[in-house]
Amino acid sequence: MTEPQQPQVLAGQKALVTGGSSGIGAGVALALARAGADVVVAYYSSPDGANEIVAQIKSLGRSAIAIKADISKPDETRALFDQSVAAFGTLDILISNAGLQRDAAFVDMSLDDWNQVIGTNLTGMFLCCQLAAREFLRRGPREMSKALGKIVCMSSVHELIPWAERANYAASKGGVKLLMQSIAQELAPKRIRVNSIGPGAIRTPINREAWETPEARKKLLELIPYGRIGEPEDIGQAAVWLCSDAADYVTGQTLFVDGGMTLYPEFADGG
Ligand code: NAD
């Protein structure tokens, strides 16, 4: 049986997804392609994963290429955008998704743990957003999108919820919140929309130990009122909507996709 066709709300648009070879990024890359976009799958460490996602996108009838870049490095990030524009002519959508954790008790956290997480999750986000905005402004309007360009920052429920032994990660996502809102404010007059998605617990390699064993899964589910762990497809659907003209009046927002994790579930029985 063939999959039902999805509305092609992103038909003809060109998207770049960082961290596109695994987890949420792979799910978003596939969802964008199903909605009609061609996709650059930017990857860091897994050419096999990236090539697999590229093959799946091509089987949907869309164009896709895999490009390697460490987005914490300005020269590699610039080369990623240059190669993407050379391949596709321009970009309409950035999904700035690449991120990592280096967990440690605060008193033991090394400067390297701190710098690596901030360097990718926040500085890398800054570099990618800046290069995307420059490309939207260089190229000017296109008929297939009301906005000049769309940026989605992959934040986290931890832009809101403090997280012990992950001060570097929570600080990076808290930084993403005001980075996103500040550039959304600045770029709105240019008709560039900038939003974040705040995933809750999504089943990916980054948090394998939180869902792999039945005991860990039970503990995790206590934090999720909706009663299931999220899948990359849940984030993919949200990204498609945020990038589509259906969300043309939405900018500067974090859309939490978390099964209610940010609803203070510990107060559900009166606290
Ligand atoms: P993941 O580990 O599968 O994906 C992270 C991706 O980022 C990987 O492909 C990795 O190679 C890439 N990456 C890491 N450092 C990089 C660098 N310097 N340059 C380029 N790419 C780099 O995990 P995921 O869960 O899919 O994470 C994707 C994003 O979602 C991250 O920003 C993460 O913080 C966020 N997030 C995940 C969850 C969750 O529950 N899985 C929850 C909230 C937020």
Automatic annotation (TrEMBL):
Highest taxon of source: Bacteria
Gene Ontology molecular functions: oxidoreductase activity, acting on the CH-OH group of donors, NAD or NADP as acceptor
Entry's family note: Belongs to the short-chain dehydrogenases/reductases (SDR) family.
Full protein name: Short-chain dehydrogenase/reductase SDR
Signal peptide location: none
Domain Ketoreductase span(s) in chain numbering: 13-205
Organism: Hydrocarboniphaga effusa AP103
Entry-linked NCBIfam families: PRK07231.1
Gene3D superfamilies tied to this protein: NAD(P)-binding Rossmann-like Domain
Pfam family, one: adh_short_C2
UniProt cross-references to InterPro entries, sorted A to Z: KR_dom, NAD(P)-bd_dom_sf, Sc_DH/Rdtase_CS, SDR_fam
